[in-house]
Amino acid sequence: MAGGRRARRPPWPGTVVTFLIRRLIAAIALLVIVSMVTFAIFFLVPRLTGATTADLASRYVGKSAGPQAIHEVEVRLGLNKPLAIQYWDFVKGIVVGSHYDFGPSKVYCGPPCFGYSFINQTPVWPDLLDRAPVTLWLAAGAAIIWLLFGVSAGVVSALKRGTAVDRLSMGLALAGVSLPIFFTGLLSLAIFRDKLGWFPDAGTYVGFTQNPIQWASAMVLPWVTLAFLQAALYARLTRAGMLETMGEDYIRTARAKGLPERTVIVRHALRATLTPVLTIFGLDLGMLLGGAVLTESTFSLPGLGKFAIESINNNDLPRVLGVVMLGAFFIVLANLIVDILYAVIDPRVRLS
Amino acid sequence: MRRSIPLVATGLAATLALAACGGGSGGSSGNSGGDGSFNAGLTRVVNPSTKTGGTLHLANAGDWDNVDPADTYYAFSWNFARFYGRTLMMFKPSPGKSGLELTPDLAQGPGQHSADLKTWTYKLKPGVKYEDGTPVKAQDIKYDIERSLDKKTFPNGPTYFNDYLDLQGYTSPYNDKTPGKLGLKAVETPDDSTIVFHLKKPFGAFDYFAMLPSTMPVPPAKDTGANYKQHVVATGPYKFESYTPGKSIALVRNTNWDPSTDPNRKQLPDRVEVQLGINADDVDNRLINGSLQSDVQSTGVQAAAAGRIQTQPRLKQNADAAPTARLWYVAISGDVAPFDNVHCRRAVEYVADKQAMQTAFGGPLSGGDIATHLIMPVLPGSKDMNPYPSGPGNHGDIAKAKQELAACGKPNGFKTVISARTERTKEVNAALAMQQSLAKIGVQVEIKKYPQGDYFKLYAGKPEYVKKNGLGLMMMAWAADWPEGFGYLSQIVDSRVIRDAGNTNLGVKDPEVDKTLDKAVVTADETARNDLWAQIDAKVMDDAYIVPFLNVKGLMYRPPSAKNTYINQGLNGEYDFVQMGVK
Q1: Contact state of A171 with B5 under an 8 Å Cβ cutoff
Q2: Could you give the percent of chain A with pLDDT greater than 90?
Q3: Which of A37, A314, B216, B275 is close enough to B69 for a disulfide, judged by CB 3.0 to 4.6 Å?
């Protein structure tokens, strides 16, 4: 290696541009496929049981509505059109917007128009924009906590293998991965809100700009509860990675070179360990941004996850499509960022 | 790793112990004080107060179908709408049986009808104003009724006006070319304070239609169609400050509401705030810790809270087991053999272990009372009967059931299917109890589960699907639109309302029942009408198309922080929100 010719690095910025364009095309293709699959599930599955378009329309009328009322809703929602036309109308709305009949007048819904809710006729896109910050705050806050505590616990546990510290942190990790969030969530509300009164606003979300103190009071328990679950996983993952890496030849070499132990651990061992951690982190963060369903439901946070569940329960197709596509977008975006970060963390990626 | 398990177990035990302490205390002050006792809210006003001020905090685990009076069908929505809207008639603001009586709201008195019961006239009270101070006119009531007819724009609301008014082809004010968009001939407004309804068929209890939210006035100039929900113009004691679907509602005092025109409502709190989409268990916890005054959905507390209330006297004193006009039953399809034979249906009636089914729904306190016929005691005119006694302890009469099976020509039993909604554990457990009951007489039952969102629309409420898939038995529930025979029975016993999908009646196809129903709706005298409902009850039970097993009760919690609290039976066993205060 010492006398060998050093491999020449490809032009890094150019590679990034190509890489981004490739990923962008893939992301758009993925979103199209996701929307088609969601559309198909929504309309084709009921048809397999013999449901007609009038039956589908009857989901969106009052309990004793007659055939005329059902037919009018069928027409208004466009359910009587061929499926391909309905899908085309949906895509067209996203790209160029669409007009909707509000009774006395037609309302223009500008792009990206994900349509209007089948249930309460509110536009989907503003609803998504309204809900997304809640999920973003939740995911960001929890991610900081779980990365900080999870990775630290994993490193310490690996370095103190077999000691009481290792057992305690791994015991907590086991509890974290074993306890469902609706259990730890309700438990934390019972203890820290109802019993101790530390977070009186937990379960009562208000926007950050509306009342920052109440916002923080409402967010602490969801952050910690969600982070407890995720940190456990990251601690176990980091510990396993660190144990494996610390046994590698290059660690021994680094120590033999006389590098300080801190440098060996942080620059050499932890850096290598972080690559798989980052992979999982990208996926987890993307999934959470698409909606932390259980956490949001438990703590009554009006985020995307709760929005998704409500929409699915109501058979509200435009909302389901909107939230599914936004979720898919976040997952694609998170993975893209992770791919870029790989190159920052691990030089070998840049060379490949 | 083995040594980590005791650590986890210790930690878990400690946490649970802490939680148990929290649960035991039930919060710091949320359940102390108050003048209540168990079920006090059924017969009297609990924590009476005339003090004004404060904020009434409510929560809803879900959301509204719509706050627009032309487009709402949820029971809690009809109750809540009384904060911001006034109708021609309303249920008396009173605990006990008197809550079942109608009283004039915008109207000066009950409707005056023609001899043939096809024309109904109401005179309006003078001096009623909108929140902006403009006077309410009879034409505005007509306008909202016209809006409610437009099912393309407002699909959620009931269709009583569509079905009974002599529409003559009228569809919507939005297609109406007449000046003022008041072209509906079936409703006349000879002057600003008179409204006349012309029906295409006689109807003796029209005052109940006059209680529907679609008789709330809407000023045509303020109507924005489907967007009107963003700001409904108030006539009640409160007006909208904000409504964010899925998140919150805030109401504030309507300064143009005049109590002298409205003896039926109070205006005690300064504000009413509703949080939407709150975890149902957390709603209960907050009720118990006193930070909420009521649960908007009003269907009773969840299982966890029900357990605490039933075992802790200091919580139980603040609870009411409210009877409702809601029935759980098993519908029997006469289109699925061998249930085309009345004796096979009667075998099911006899063998049902109603006690087990009641337990599946939470027992007598949080589930309800065992039902033996259709019309429950809370409805006016209910006559007690038990045509199919289900043996000691209500565990089913196997001997009688076997006799009926033999008469049906199936002495060794048969195979059939029972349907239930997947997400509803209690319903599935009741279906399981039915399965076990029928097994005792050799009837093998397969339980098929379907998603609740499509249960009536695509599966158990769709005759074609039911027949094709052999659903002989179907778990069903039905709540009256209002506590009176027509509002309760018309959708579950009239063979002529059976449509392609979305049915709650798939079995009762008896011309005699239809005939009696027609007779009841043209009977103006309430006592005579109630007798006819009771006759229908007896006939349907004799036909054995329905196995009623539970008259539903909701175990409701009223924290001491809620003042003027009582169950209004006219509102189907809900707390009367518009009377409540917090001081």
Answers
A1: yes
A2: 29
A3: B216
